[in-house]
Design goal:
The structure is a single chain. By secondary structure, this protein is α/β, with parallel strands linked by helices. Helices cover 33% and strands 18% of the residues. The protein has eleven helices and 13 strands. The strands form three sheets. Strands 2-3-4-5-6-7-8-9 form an eight-stranded parallel beta sheet. A three-stranded antiparallel beta sheet has the order 1-10-13. A two-stranded antiparallel ribbon has the order 11-12. The chain is globular, with a radius of gyration of 19 Å. The protein binds (4S)-2,6-dioxohexahydropyrimidine-4-carboxylic acid and zinc ion (ZN). (4S)-2,6-dioxohexahydropyrimidine-4-carboxylic acid (DOR) binds next to loops.
Length: 345
């Protein structure tokens, strides 16, 4: 039985670090595990300008504890009236690594998102021209579409159109949850990739309702049927360079989760690598972990691979029931359970 996993230091290609006090409380969980991270821009107000992204990047760097080397990669939040030249300038000045499409009102802080994909065609044209990746929250959110069908419908209604009109555009289909998404990514060119979260590899939709409503397993896109979880596990561990690590770690105070209108999001940053290692071991694919965690992402983004090596050892990690930050409790993913791997510090 394998006792040690040595891999290049991974990156996290999808992270919510929040802002203010919460930023200081959560950023180091990510910075301890990952060298770089794609930082989601769904703050209030959202990060829609080069200046806002630069200022947010400084706040993140200030909050990183001494001794950790961590590079936040900033993302522009696309709105209906985004100026394509703002995106071009942000990319040229080395501030924007990507731009994010949130369909309006699809998820947390997405009210200012895009109401119709055609409204951002001038932006997509510039992005395709300069090679800036489009990150998509892939869900339609019309009230007549079942919540479990939202991702599959997004492929048909939006993505099909985007890839037809912008065949060169680099697209990351974020936090995929369905076999339809796996199939879509596999059947398109090298410019189409996807991130997969640790929680969508671990839970199916039963976890949200086991013994009552479990708000800590509620995230968006919502977890789907078992067959979809199995398709995600197969894709992540396949060795295909189209799939890479993106945790979608998304902390919310316990009171905001355990409420009459609980927020979507799972805080998985503290044991993200241990959680992925669990899945890869269960799938007998530990030899594929490095590609997924440390190589496919940078290659897609055209960034160098990290040189540093990290070690996961076979040693129990006991995940706390809760974490308390400046008076606020947050329940982490895997709360109260024990994982078989530990990241050496
Ligand atoms: O579960 C989620 N939480 N999904 C998202 O798309 C947003 C995120 C958040 O910001 O809380
Ligand atoms: Zn997210």
């Amino acid at each position: 039985m394998r006792q040690r996993i040595e891999i290049r230091r991974p990156d996290d290609w999808h992270v919510h670090l929040r802002d203010g006090d919460m930023l200081g409380d959560v950023v180091n969980y990510t910075a301890r595990q990952f060298a770089r991270a794609i930082i989601m821009p769904n703050l209030t107000p959202p990060v829609t300008t080069v200046d806002a992204a630069r200022a947010y990047r400084s706040r993140i760097l200030k909050a990183v504890e001494e001794g950790l080397v961590f590079t936040p990669l900033m993302v522009a939040y696309l709105t209906d009236d985004m100026d394509p030249e703002e995106i071009r300038r942000g990319a040229e000045e080395g501030v924007f690594t990507a731009a994010k499409l949130y369909p309006a009102n699809a998820t947390t802080n997405s009210a200012a998102g895009v109401t119709d994909i055609k409204k951002i065609y001038s932006v997509l044209r510039v992005m395709a021209e300069i090679g800036l990746p489009l990150l998509v929250h892939g869900e339609v959110n019309h009230s007549d579409v079942d919540i479990f069908d939202r991702e599959a419908r997004f492929i048909e209604d939006v993505l099909a159109l985007v890839i037809k009109d912008f065949p060169e555009l680099k697209i990351v289909f974020e936090h995929i949850t369905t076999e339809e998404a796996v199939e879509f990514v596999n059947s398109n060119g090298a410019n189409i990739a996807a991130t997969i979260t640790p929680h969508h590899l671990e839970i199916n939709r039963n976890a949200i309702f086991q013994g009552g409503i479990n708000p800590h397993n509620y995230c968006l896109p919502i977890a789907k049927r078992e067959k979809h979880r199995l398709a995600l596990r197969k894709a992540a561990t396949s060795g295909s360079s189209k799939f890479f690590l993106g945790t979608d770690t998304a902390p919310h105070p316990v009171a905001a989760k355990e409420s009459a209108c609980g927020c979507a999001g799972i805080f998985n940053a503290p044991y993200a690598l241990e959680s992925y290692a669990k899945t890869f071991e269960e799938e007998d694919a530990l030899d594929k972990l490095e590609g997924f965690a440390s190589e496919h992402g940078p290659r897609f983004y055209g960034l160098p691979l990290n040189e540093e090596i990290i070690i996961l050892e076979r040693k129990a990690s006991k995940v706390p029931e809760k974490l308390t930050f400046s008076g606020t409790d947050i329940i982490p993913f895997h709360a109260g359970s024990t994982l078989n791997w530990s990241l050496q510090s």
